[in-house]
Design brief:
Elements: H1 7-12, H2 41-80, E1 92-97, E2 101-103, E3 106-116, E4 122-130, E5 135-141, E6 151-154, E7 162-171, E8 178-189, E9 196-207, E10 211-216, E11 220-221, E12 226-235, E13 241-249, E14 255-260, E15 269-275, E16 280-288, E17 297-307, E18 313-325, E19 330-338, E20 344-345, E21 350-359, E22 365-366, E23 369-375, E24 379-385, E25 390-392, E26 395-398, E27 408-409, E28 414-423, E29 436-444, E30 452-461, E31 465-476, E32 486-496, E33 501-509, E34 517-523, E35 531-534, E36 539-547, E37 558-566, E38 578-589, E39 595-600, E40 603-604
Parallel strand pairs: 2-9, 11-18, 20-30
Antiparallel strand pairs: 1-3, 3-7, 4-6, 4-8, 5-7, 8-9, 10-12, 12-16, 13-15, 13-17, 14-16, 17-18, 19-21, 21-28, 22-27, 23-26, 23-29, 24-28, 25-26, 29-30, 31-32, 32-37, 33-36, 33-38, 34-37, 35-36, 38-39, 38-40
């Protein structure tokens, strides 16, 4: 090998067959100043030996540090990157020039004026109009963007320039409603992407539309007359009105009879449809104030409404009319003085009535006649007592032949009459329900061609409900014996007469060992889900719910039964054993509204009856 050969190459050429492993410490350092191994190999190995275990023991901290450095770099990039400068909103003046009042259902023109008072140009501008409920777009200059009429184009505005947008809207709502319109200008600065908004508002108060609406009729009447009223309407505006409707509100004591034309909805709403310019119409209706009293004021209200685009009706015009109820020349009234409580009478009770009559006219009434009719199949007509009167089935008549005071009834003269009747028990023997005793009275004299009505009266008849209990022997000792088992069946039966009952709940206590109550024996099967038993207290609960009318007479009894087992002890010798006690039911009469409370008989081993109906001795035997 030549002397000038690279010693490194020479050393690296030692064959591996020399039997010695390659040792980096035996490599001769190069003499060249640019040698790649500037650090001694032994130090490099020492460094690797140190770093390896350190990384293995602290790799999570190392990665956390690396991630922290990455986050700091990202935040620094975000913080120091070039950004748009923060700009203040431009000096923009936006205003709405429009009327402050508008007829309901009419049209109003809004002039929205926009002025750029800033030193910068505004571009990509749009005007947005926010409509209140009942307001809708009609037309505009320039035309709206889209069909909704909420967005309008606005040209770029140089400093000092202005533009106006004219918008026609239709505003509907109730009279005196205030409707707030909101105008918003969306814009940008030139060469900037930030959006800005300037806005203003304008409020319009609605007044009555140009529709004439009037009610006419008698200013005074009495509660015996049938009276006629008329509603007239006319479109006095310069345009047609679509989807119109007349709605009447009647006073409390007015009884509607008929109308021409017939109402389209209920008894008080007429659909007018389209009302052309200058078109008019009328509605006539009749009724009476039979339930009103003298001196009362009764006020009618009529409203003209229009349907808007959202499907809601708004009042465009309204009016009222008041009628005073005057006194009848002859007056007769009736009242129940005994036998009834809160307008309810029980079967078998006697009702006592008093009639009061009076001449309110300025002249005497000759040959006065008072007639009272009774309408009820539950009244025992043979029981009617009316001294001096003529009784013909359910009609009672008083005249001068039966009461001398009725021959001549002077002005302001008055008097009283009495009669009584009895309710049958049971009140009916058919399937009739919700029974009442209705009486109507009227009066006349020679001076008047027809009878003048008095007040009507209706007394409700309560229903008859019963809770019956009975006992059967099923098996075991009879009579019961000490230490031996006896099984009995407890029966509960419910009956009802003329009115449906609801929300019924029956409770009772079974004072025997809980193990002796056989819940699997409950009959009929449809009642199983309605019955619960509390073994800790011995309380039985039967949720009766609805008890129909005529259960037990024209339909089967409502029944529930359950078996109990007893094993008497020696201290019960000579005594009967209690099987059922404290039986009670609460239920509501759906017709009269009464809350009813009923009780049933307790049962003991001595409640058993033989085939002849005689009581069987139930005393415990030794």
């Amino acid at each position: 090998m030549e002397e000038n050969q690279n010693p490194k190459v020479s050393n690296m050429s030692v064959p591996p067959s020399a039997g010695k492993p390659l040792n980096v410490t035996n490599i001769v350092p190069p003499t060249s100043p640019v040698a790649p191994t500037a650090v001694p190999t032994s130090r490099f190995k020492a460094l690797l030996a140190t770093v390896g275990p350190f990384y293995a023991q602290n790799k999570y901290y190392v990665w956390a540090a690396v991630l922290g450095i990455i986050v700091l770099v990202v935040l620094a990039f975000i913080a120091f990157r070039p950004q748009e400068p923060i700009l203040a909103p431009a000096k923009v003046d936006i205003s709405i020039d429009a009327p402050t009042v508008s007829p309901s259902g009419g049209e109003a023109v809004l002039k929205v004026k926009i002025t750029n008072k800033d030193t910068a140009t505004l571009n990509k501008a749009e005007l947005e109009l926010v409509y209140p409920e009942g307001a809708s777009y009609v037309d505009s200059t320039p035309k709206a963007i889209g069909l909704t009429g909420t967005t309008f184009p606005v040209p770029d505005l140089q400093p000092g320039q202005n533009v106006a947008v004219l918008i026609k809207v239709r505003i509907q709502g109730q009279i005196n409603d205030e409707k707030k319109l909101i105008a918003k200008l969306h814009y940008r600065y030139t060469n900037f992407s930030s959006d800005f908004v300037a806005e203003t508002t304008h409020t319009v108060r609605l007044v009555a539309a140009d529709v004439a609406l009037e009610i006419s009729g008698p200013q005074t009447t009495n509660n015996a007359q049938v009276v006629t009223y008329e509603v007239s309407y006319k479109n006095n505006s310069d345009k047609e009105i679509q989807n119109g409707r007349i709605e009447l509100t009647y006073p409390d004591h007015f009884q509607f009879a008929s109308a021409e034309p017939q109402p389209n909805l209920g008894k008080n709403i007429w659909n007018i449809g389209t009302l052309q310019k200058g078109q008019q119409g009328k509605i006539s209706f009749q009724g009476s104030f039979a339930s009103g009293g003298p001196g009362q004021s009764e006020t009618f209200k009529a409203a003209f409404l229009v349907l808007d685009a959202s499907g809601s009706f708004f009042t465009q015009a309204d009016t009222t009319f008041t009628t005073q109820i005057g006194s009848l020349p002859l007056v007769v009234t009736q009242e129940v003085v005994s036998g009834s409580s809160n307008g309810i009478v029980k079967p078998g009770e006697t009702l006592r009535y008093k009639l009061s009559y009076r001449n309110n006219a300025a002249v005497a009434a000759k040959g006065a006649i008072i007639v009272l009719t009774i309408d009820s199949q539950a009244v025992d007509l043979g029981s009617i007592q009316a001294e001096g009167a003529q009784v013909n089935n359910g009609t009672i008549t008083w005249n001068a032949s039966s009461n001398s005071n009725l021959e001549t009834l002077n002005p302001n003269e008055s008097g009283n009459l009495e009669f009584s009747l009895k309710i049958k028990n049971p009140p009916v023997r058919d399937t009739s329900r919700n029974l009442e005793v209705k009486t109507a009275v009227k009066i006349k004299s020679d001076e008047y061609e027809t009878f003048l009505p008095g007040g009507d009266l209706a007394i409700k008849i309560s229903t008859q409900v019963s809770v019956d209990t009975s006992l059967e022997h099923i098996s075991g000792q009879l009579p019961p014996q000490v230490g031996k088992e006896s099984t009995y069946r407890l029966n509960i039966a419910l009956s009802n007469s003329t009115n449906e009952l609801r929300d019924g709940v029956l409770t009772a206590f079974i004072p025997v060992a809980a193990s002796g109550v056989d819940l699997s024996s409950i009959q009929p099967a449809r009642e199983v889900s309605n019955v619960t038993f509390d073994s800790s207290t011995g309380k039985l609960t039967w949720k009766v719910g609805i008890l129909s009318a005529h259960v037990g007479d024209f339909s089967p009894l409502r029944k529930m039964s359950i078996n109990v087992r007893i094993v008497p002890s020696s201290n019960q010798v000579g005594r009967e054993v209690e099987l059922l006690k404290t039986v009670g039911m609460k239920i509501v009469d759906s017709f009269t509204g009464e809350n009813l409370s009923l009780n049933g008989n307790a049962l003991t081993t001595s409640s058993l009856k033989d085939s002849n109906g005689y009581t069987v001795d139930g005393s415990v035997r030794p």
